[in-house]
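Supplementary Methods S3. Input chains for the assembly prediction are listed below.
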Amino acid sequence: MFRRLLDWLEDRTGVESAVKHFLYEEIPASSGWHQVFGSVALFAFLVQAATGILLALNYSPAPVAAYDSVRYIVTQVTAGRLMRALHHWGASLMIVVVVLHMLQTFVWGAYKKPREATWIGGVVLLLLTLAFGLSGSLLPWDNRAYWGTVVTTQISALAPGAGPLLVRLLGSDGTSIGAITFTRFYVAHVQLLPPLTVLLIALHVYLVRRHGVAPAPEDENQPKKKFYPEQVAKDTIAIFGWFAVLMGMAILARVPLGHMADPTDLSYVPRPEWYFLFLFQFLKWFEGPLEVVGALILPTLAIVALILVPFLDRGKLKAVRRRSGAIGLAALAAIFWGGLTARAVTTSPQSREMDMSLVKPWQQISAGDMASIGFFRTAQCGSCHMLGKSGAGPDLAVAPSSRPAEWLEGHIKSKAGSPRALTEDQVKMLAAFVAERSAPAVDAWQNAPQNAVAGALVYQANDCGSCHKLNGVGDQLGPELNGVGERHDRSWIEHHFADPPKYSPDSIMPAFQFKPDELKLITDYIMAIPK
Amino acid sequence: MKPLDVSLERTRVDGWRNFQEKSIAWVVRTSEDNVVAYSPQCTHLGCAYHWEESGKQFVCPCHGSRFSIEGKVLGGPAARPLDRYPVQVENSTLLIGSEIQKA
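Predicted structure tokens for the full assembly:
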């Protein structure tokens, strides 16, 4: 029965013989582990396509909305954070494997006649992979995305002759970027690059089949092998290994979402993705009018040199262990790349930017509201008003109270009597909080961790808000406290309380001597409030 | 004299939308009745630079360009002095234009 079905399929479509033709391709006796990278690169592309489509199902491609939708994807959508992490780290690991594929081809000399076109196609595929990375990095529309792309468009403006045209093509006005640049990067990332890449991959694989897998000199006297099963097994194992690394990174290494793109944020220090760091460092060597040399001319020459590799080296096929020139060149390039990257990493300031996708409602409401939640908890109002559940009293999380603040004040006073008494002011604040209760406040009411609430109580008790603004509430005699944890480290903040002028010479802030537990609570609390 | 980062509102045409956006200018008082306002982006590759009081200079954190308080290049890869906005003082109010002028 099954056989008959297969025969019918074979007769009508030829699919069986096509698969056989593909699997039983003859490959040289020397083929082995060193040739698995091409298959892994192809698999990496498929992973990017699949995760990219899944992300696009919940993504809104326009400035501002893009940021909100990425936040939605990583906080609300089932497995959304994992999909984003797979796509993000998948891009990095795809570049790794594409470069390894190219290095292998280079070291083994597999680009030689008649495989020049296969090599050139490969170089173009490498450039397409990098273009994917560059265009995709703008799409979350956070500060990193924005400022990185400002630099990208300004680099293109340096192009001799073509600069102004390129800037217009990228939708920039020469200084800033906006909706047009965003749309063009999006179109490039999802509409232009994918079909172009598919086409080039098809061409690349066709050429590999046309010329066969590159042989080594010792292959001449040995019988040929078949692609299936030995090489297929090796390729598959390599793919599994690659995917295991990707899955591990996606689970263990968070992909942060920074603050939304802000052209007025003067404190943001942009750094490119790790695979462009060497170019970033390279740029710094070229001052003044030489700028264009480092930014565009030398990188372009390097690409041209790569394309010309098969025409520059026309020697006879040699065993890989005798290709010392190629091995030396590859090692030099690796040292050059590694050195520049290491230098860029060590000279970059450690970023303390908060992952905004992890920010909870309690981090966004006023310290007064947080303190009111503290009063509610200390007075044990929750024993009757169980939030999210019906108890002896109404569920304050769902039923909006129609009671005026005065009634609430009286009610709280009568119920929260001695020994869990609240002061007059605390009763007033709690009544106002219950009467108002915004959506984030209700979430915080139920979910804010007790430590943070206790920190806000210390903040309130010491009247920090009479000088400092936090989440939009408070005076501005002192600096705004949002993002203080990004500006200073913990020990600076803790020591600053005890002796402000020692740390900021012009400070008029009085000294605060906190007990150790209070110091920890208030420091934890203010450091958790994002910019 | 310390430069001030002044925030301002300006209308920006961004493709199909016109909108009010916040922006920044670095304002320096050069004499009793003379004020200059610099565009906040480095003339190298457009990053936001800041004032470093200890070295009395503007420093760009991206590629390390440095500028004097007059906007001249002191070092690093930048090739041009800081860009300026046109300014006008009217009854002790500072008006800052949005057209960027290359110095």
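Chain B touches chain A at residues 5, 7, 12, 14-17, 21-24, 39-41, 44-50, 61-64, 73, 75-79, 100 (CB under 8 Å). DSSP finds no helices and ten strands in chain B.
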